[in-house]
Amino acid sequence: MKVNQAEFVISAVGPSQYPEDALPEIALAGRSNVGKSSLINCLISRKNLARTSSQPGKTQTLNYYKVNQDLYFVDLPGYGYAKVSKTKREQWGKFIENYLLNRETLRLVMQLVDLRHPPSKDDQAMYEWLRHNDVPVLVVATKADKIPKSQWAKHLKIVRETLGMDKGVQPLMFSSELTLGKDELWGILEQAIAYGEPEVEAAEAPAGTIETNEEVIQREPS
């Protein structure tokens, strides 16, 4: 996809603020500081459209970024930040859960994990929850530039095994600094939102059709 226009639209605190133009949505989930903003900026070839909070864990909203007239990236609040109270985490959890389960225009969740480290318990819980609820998910392993290329395969295997991913399903390795994985990721996202297909077909597609996109994210390990 050639990005001609990208803009921040709204920091939504509830369904009443969500956009109503029915464009498909791609959500980004992950721990604070995993690189969600950097990934968005890399995909749209902009440096500072999506900005990282100066206080990780502070963001309590769904940040909507509109790309062309084709889709929204929806940046979810980061999870796993120690300084956030248990009560606040529970509130965020219900807020995010409601969006992920009930947002009709949601097409795919990109769950970002840090390639340098084994996925945390929060990462594991999020992945298990998404799979249990049949929410289409693509695991993106970020910050590949921070470790030697010779270690990539080893770390990808750790991510895959720690999350308990199905055989044949491979995390997508990504680096915002190197733009590594950018073209492959766009290809997956285009298929997830049925980019380029006639609007009538997209509108008439059954609600469960997105489940077939698991074929997109089930790639044989290289």
TrEMBL record:
UniProt-listed CDD domains = YihA_EngB
What range(s) does the EngB-type G domain occupy?
22-195
UniProt keyword list: Cell cycle, Cell division, GTP-binding, Magnesium, Metal-binding, Nucleotide-binding, Septation
Keyword Cell division in record: yes
Output the Pfam families linked to this UniProt entry.
MMR_HSR1 (PF01926)
Q: Which domain of life is it from?
A: Bacteria
- Tell me which HAMAP family the record gives: GTPase_EngB (MF_00321)
Function recorded in the entry: Necessary for normal cell division and for the maintenance of normal septation.
The protein's name in its UniProt record: Probable GTP-binding protein EngB
Q: What is the lineage of its organism?
A: Bacteria, Bacillati, Bacillota, Bacilli, Bacillales
Gene label: yihA
